[in-house]
Amino acid sequence: MDSWTNKLQCLIKGPGWEPGSPWTGYPEKVPGPEPSKEPVFRKLSWYWEIFLLCDLIASTIYFSVMLLRLMNTPTNVYYGIIILLYVHAWCVNLVLVGHVHASIMQMLRLAVWRTFLQPYAWRFLLNGASPFERFLQMCADKIAFALLLASCAHVFIKYHKSNNANWSEKKRV
Question: Could you give the C-alpha distances from 13 to 2, 9, 16, 27, 34, in angstroms and in order?
């Protein structure tokens, strides 16, 4: 393995290859995943399952309306939508991983979308839209508002419980 051709062939042919072995190498010499790096799948609560399902429905509606109005929308709107999709995927990842601040990030994402970005996005996307597209927009708005209220309630209940637990522990001491 000292020559550069052997190192190059090892990169091309795979991790189990060494000089004098078959084309793809010996299967028993291929390294497996380390036990510490295996993925851990957490069970989501029913709240997060329903929340993510409704969020998926609303995102699908937004994306389908965007695709319907593809030719009439300015390019700079798409840059904003791509950034929003990235933030959306990042927040969903926080939920699936079980991060402590997932509910706060979901609440902030929905609050920013509802207050600042949604009116401008619909103005660009629904310029001269059909009644069906406006109906889809109305449904997506209602779902997004319900998700915002649910995430605010979840954050309030979650942190209210933790603050009350901390307060009762301080009183006992």
Answer: 16, 6, 8, 12, 22
